[in-house]
Amino acid sequence: MKAITRALAEAARQLDPSSDTARLDSELLMAEALHIDRDKLILSPPNRDVPGRFWAMIERRKAGEPIAYITGRRAFWNIELHVGPGVLVPRPDSEVLIASAIEHFEGTEGPARILDLGTGPGTLLLAALDVWPEATGVGTDLSRQALSYASANARRLGFESRVKWVQSNWADGLMEQFDLILCNPPYVAEGSKLGPGVREYEPDEALFAGSEGLDAYRALAPQLPHLLARDGLAAVEIGHDQASAVTALLARDGLHAAVTQDLAGRDRALLLTYV
Question: Which of 245, 272, 258 is CA-nearest to residue 178?
Answer without folding.
Answer: 272
